[in-house]
Amino acid sequence: MYVLMSSAGWFTVGIIGVIIWIAIAFWPARVASRKGHSFFGYFILSLFFFPLALIMAYVVKDRAGNYVRS
């Protein structure tokens, strides 16, 4: 038995992949936005360089004044 995926199936898998990719790109953008940085800038950066954007979002200084106190 073999599995053969039609072009419509590949298209569907591709669309779902793009939707997941865009949804995950919101993560660093939201973190940076909460710290007072540009949501749109981090969103675009995370679309192309997700690991870098995620690290930068957690490392950058909080400009919004939402300091975490322990």
Summarize the structure.
Helix content is 69%, strand content 0%. With 70 residues, it is mainly α.
Into how many domains do the coordinates divide? Answer: 1
How far apart the termini lie comes to: 59 Å
Mean pLDDT: 87
Give me the count of strands. Answer: 0
Helix content: 55-70%
Which range does the strand content fall in?
A: under 5%
Radius of gyration: 17 Å
Order of helices and strands: HHH
Shape designation: rod-shaped
Detail the topology: elements first, then pairings.
Layout: H1 7-34, H2 39-48, H3 50-59
Helix pairs in contact: 1-2, 1-3, 2-3
Key terms for this structure?
mainly alpha; 69% helix; 70 residues; 3 helices
Could you please describe the fold and organization of this structure?
- This protein is mainly α.
- The protein has one domain.
- Helix content is 69%, strand content 0%.
- It contains three helices and no strands.
- The radius of gyration is 17 Å and the shape is rod-shaped.
